[in-house]
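Hi V.,

Quick status before I head out on leave. The structure for the redesign project is tokenized and pasted below; the design run finished overnight.
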């Protein structure tokens, strides 16, 4: 009797209490084999599986991305990225912000090989959206990790409570209640994010 390999994919449910540790090489292999799944890898080697977003958060994410993309298209100051983009931070973690942006000189300094993979740099700017199923502590930890790895400006948007936590390099976190807009400050000069769609 001969055995044949089945080509059918099997779905595996991983309990939140279970921690999976993989090497960087294993992570890259998993990411290539599962392009439709958003995976992240911590500095300690923990594999993080992020479920797809629901329609409402996906719509909001698209709106924020679109506003940043349009500003960047007009200013030509850098490169904007979607939530499917992974970056290798200085601490070796591979993270995928919901929205991110890198200034042009830093992006231009990378080789074509570095750009094609998980770019070895921390973005200048990141956004994380808290969905209905997200917990704030892991997102806050992620924002702190961004700052520790030299991200210059980050927004953690808590739609449910209509709050925004603003993270700045080497500064205390600022919390805004129900802001109508957010300023890109000196990181995204001249950019103002309209939050009407976020709070709608």
């Amino acid at each position: 009797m001969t055995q044949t390999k089945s080509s059918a994919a099997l779905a595996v449910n991983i309990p939140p209490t279970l921690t999976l540790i993989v090497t960087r090489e294993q992570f890259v292999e998993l990411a290539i084999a599962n392009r439709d799944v958003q995976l992240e890898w911590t500095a300690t080697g923990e594999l993080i599986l992020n479920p797809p977003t629901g329609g409402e958060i996906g719509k909001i994410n698209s709106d924020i991305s679109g506003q940043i993309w349009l500003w960047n298209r007009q200013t030509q100051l850098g490169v904007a990225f979607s939530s499917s983009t992974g970056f290798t931070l200085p601490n070796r973690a591979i993270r995928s912000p919901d929205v991110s942006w890198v200034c042009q000189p830093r992006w231009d300094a990378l080789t074509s090989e570095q750009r094609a993979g998980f770019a070895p740099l921390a973005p200048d700017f990141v956004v994380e959206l808290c969905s209905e199923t997200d917990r704030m502590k892991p997102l806050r930890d992620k924002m702190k990790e961004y700052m520790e790895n030299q991200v210059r400006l980050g927004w953690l948007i808590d739609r449910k409570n209509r709050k925004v936590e603003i993270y700045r390099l080497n500064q205390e976190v600022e919390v805004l209640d129900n802001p109508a807009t957010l300023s890109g400050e000196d990181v995204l000069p001249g950019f103002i994010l309209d939050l009407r769609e976020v709070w709608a």
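Above is the designed sequence. The mean pLDDT is 88.

G. will cover questions while I'm gone.

Best,
W.
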